[in-house]
Amino acid sequence: MSECGGCLIGDCNYVWKVNSVPQETILHHLLVEHNIVIASIETVYSISKYCSYWSHKINSGNVEQFLHGINVHSDCQNAEAKSFYMLNDTSNEDRVLRFKLHQEKLQEVLKQQQIERDRTNFKIQCLFCPDFLHGNRFTISSHFFEDHSFSLGHPDNVVFTEQFIERLRQKMNKFECLYCDKVFRDYKTLREHMRKKLHKRLNPSNTEFDKFYVINYREFGKTWKDLGSNDKEEKESKQRNEQLNTTEDWDDWRDQDPDMKCLICNDTNNRLIDLKKHMLYKHFLDFDEMTSSLSYYKQVKLVNYIRYKIHDDICPFCHIPDPDIPNHLITIQKLPETLFREEVHSHQYIPENRYDDEQYLFPSLDNDYLLCCLHDNTPPTSSGPDMPLIIPDTDIDIPDARKLELSRSLEREAVVGGGTTT
Asked: Residue 406 forms beta bridges with which residues?
């Protein structure tokens, strides 16, 4: 039997099924029927448990004892002031309650995430074709990405996978675009719109799907955007401290070096080591790892390839168009620190056959000083990079060293004397 939630007011018969009724519907009932507003609703991780707790408090005492009253005056003449009541986290009791609900929700999400990680018997119909997808989460994600160029995000960051996909299916069944939420008259028109507008993807700014990503439960009251902002400040602070503690002897020459632009965003730096750290910490792009075995010219091609794709608003890793590539990479890569990746994600590596083309020898950026700082990382060989080592057969007659040296000496004498030997 499904768990049900009840209204804050004891004599109200309004009930709802947990996880079945949208939170907005519950908030609308409280506002319209009882003039009650729950502030900072994004920090309430279980509306049913929150209402249940305060229902006991409110119904056992005076409403004003727990709710903040607000009188609102209408612009109409002779209209009486209307009283509204608010629940917010300014009181210690409410704040503690919200934090406890967050901890319970986090444990529930991590438990569900582990169940889905171990599960291998998913059976879900594809959103874009008649195929039924069997197996684990990676099988489903691979089908979406490889067959339809659609990404839900990294599987280790997705939770309540079946509910997530069904929610997307409901939107598409109503001919609603997954990216812009615009509704069309039929499926054919929707499909054509998503193809032409490059809307076969999820909008990172749409909070409707936040509950399906583990990162949004990581810290109380913070989403992936907040965590990304905090991480940026921490990394920048760490970089500044490292620069202050450096023992480099050429610090006074630093300002003379031209700025180098980041491969992903518009940030610049005149030190290669700092630029690499920025790309690693901010965009999860390990430049040293990606170029560890590449020749100079292949590194040039790789850099120019990435710059061309970023200029065209196309992810250089997955080829999915996105006007905000930095946020696209964060959405895919950002995972809770307590979790481990099950495999090296494709957004950390670009196959050589994508960029190993002569067209990428031509710079995408004028005066790209980063290209001047590259070094050949191929291992040195005495036979050259493409020359195989030739080992003579063992049955070849190798002349005695003394005879060979005598023969060479006679040849030198003949050349110097201008004559011939007989």
From this structure: none
Let me know: does 190 contact 196? Beta carbons within 8 Å. no
Amino acid identity, position 193: H
Q: Which helix (H) or strand (E) holds 187?
A: helix 187-196
* pLDDT tens-digit readout, 53-111: 888 887 776 666 677 777 766 555 565 667 788 888 888 888 899 999 999 999 999 99
Specify the 3-state DSSP secondary structure of 202: coil
The pTM assigned to this predicted structure is: 0.49
Q: What stretch of H or E contains 101? A: helix 92-118
User: Would you tell me the crossing angle of helices 272-283 and 325-333 to the nearest 10 degrees?
Assistant: 60
Quote the tokens at residue 116: 């889905």
408 Cβ contact list (under 8 Å, min separation 6): none
Q: Check residue 39 and give its pLDDT.
A: 84
CA-based max dimension of the chain: 135
Contact (Cβ atoms closer than 8 angstroms) between residue 86 and residue 39: yes
- At which residue do the structure tokens 């907040």 appear? 226
What secondary structure does DSSP assign to 279-348, as a single string?
HHHHH---HHHHTTT--HHHHHHHHHHHHHHHHTTB-TTT--B-S-HHHHHHHHH---TT---SS--GGG
What DSSP string runs through 372-413? GG----SPP-TT-TTPPPP---TTS-PPPHHHHHHHHHHHHH
The answer to whether the CB of 38 falls within 8 A of the CB of 8 is no
The three-point CA angle 295-298-303 to 5° equals 125
322/150 Cα distance (integer angstroms): 12
The number of angstroms, rounded, from the C-alpha of 186 to the middle of its chain's C-alpha atoms is 32
Question: Length of the chain, please?
Answer: 422
Residue 374 main-chain phi, psi, to 5 deg: -80, 150
Cα separation of 216 and 227, whole Å?
9
Please give the pLDDT value at position 190.
Answer: 92
Its sign, for the CA torsion 339, 341, 345, 348, is positive
Query: Any bridge partners for residue 72, and if so which?
Result: 82
CA nearest neighbour of 309 among 260, 267, 268, 365: 365
- Encode pLDDT of 113-133 as tens digits: 999 999 999 999 999 998 999
Mean pLDDT of 21-26: 82
Q: What is the CA radius of gyration of the chain?
A: 33
Query: Which has the closest alpha carbon to 109: 23, 19, 218?
Result: 218
